[in-house]
Amino acid sequence: MSGFFFGPKEKKLFGFYHSPQGDAQAVLISPPWGVEYQYAHRALRSLAQRLAEQGCHVFRFDFSGTGDSWGKCQDAGLNQWMDDLDEAARELRSLSGKESFDLVGLRLGATMAMKFAGSAGGVGNLVLWDPILDGQAWLQELQQVAQEHEGSVRKEPSDRSLEVGRHPVSPQFLTQIQDIRIEDLDTVEPAKILVLTTEEGDSLERWTKNMKGPLEREYRQILQPPAWKEDTSIWGGHLPVGALTAIVDWLGSQ
């Protein structure tokens, strides 16, 4: 595994390349955002390592305004993140020597992966791990969690920024999140899609069945503590092994 900066000089992104034990397909990982990024970091690193052990070229990175990439939290934005995915895909192609790649996204990263796969070429198989399909509902969930833990969701007096949990964001970013709706996320291009959830409920299953397009799609539900939520079992060293194994096996079978 090697970490480095990449992309345009004025807006450098940071990523990790997991070199393969072999020469199978290339895989790009699109991460979640906010506290979900923090809690899921170890799980996504383990996923990348497992895929590399199966022979995959794996690249994971931080979106603009997150992690070690350029920008502050207020610089985060979905339009910029589409450009970030394009830069990451370009870097993965250079590292792997492969023109096409598989794309794995978790939570908001899965929503971004859907948008990217529908507008960019080169995406082979797509894994959507508990994607955000209702931006307004997700924001309310984040607010509730933050209020329970530290009461830190509030509007700043300047009216120029908001704080969600411990993450200040711009009003434009929140508007982009609020505009995420399930009816706008049903047309993507990859030949095969795996929709994976680790939570109860059937909304994702219904959405998968009704997805438009000539797609070969599969839905799986593996109930276990979500990787993106604070949980004593995760901090105690456990990982969502069932979900990670399902993703690695599914990509390996394609």
Q: Kindly state the number of beta strands.
A: 11
CATH topology (fold) name: Rossmann fold
The main pleated sheet reads as: 8 strands, mixed
What is the arithmetic mean of pLDDT? 88
CATH superfamily: Alpha/Beta hydrolase fold, catalytic domain
Number of domains: 1
CATH architecture: 3-Layer(aba) Sandwich
Stretches with pLDDT under 50, minimum 5 residues: 151-160
Radius of gyration: 17 Å
Number of helices: 8
β-sheet strand percentage:
15-25%
Strand order of the largest sheet: 1-2-4-3-5-6-10-11
Q: What is the H-and-E element order?
A: EEEHEHEHEHEEEHEHEHH
What is the top-level CATH class?
Alpha Beta
Structural class: alpha/beta
Helicity range: 25-40%
What distance separates the N and C termini? 24 Å
Gross morphology = globular
List the helices and strands and how they pair.
Elements: E1 2-6, E2 13-18, E3 26-30, H1 35-53, E4 57-61, H2 78-96, E5 101-106, H3 108-119, E6 123-129, H4 135-149, E7 154-155, E8 162-164, E9 167-169, H5 171-178, E10 192-197, H6 203-210, E11 216-221, H7 232-235, H8 241-252
Parallel strand pairs: 3-4, 3-5, 5-6, 6-10, 10-11
Antiparallel strand pairs: 1-2, 2-4, 7-8, 8-9
Helix pairs in contact: 1-8, 2-3, 4-5
Textual characterization of the structure:
This protein has 254 residues and is of the alpha/beta class. It has a single domain, classed as Alpha/Beta hydrolase fold, catalytic domain (Rossmann fold), CATH 3.40.50. Helix content is 38%, strand content 21%. It has helices at residues 35-53, 78-96, 108-119, 135-149, 171-178, 203-210, 232-235, 241-252, and strands at residues 2-6, 13-18, 26-30, 57-61, 101-106, 123-129, 154-155, 162-164, 167-169, 192-197, 216-221. The longest helix has 19 residues, at 35-53. The model is unreliable at 151-160 (pLDDT under 50).
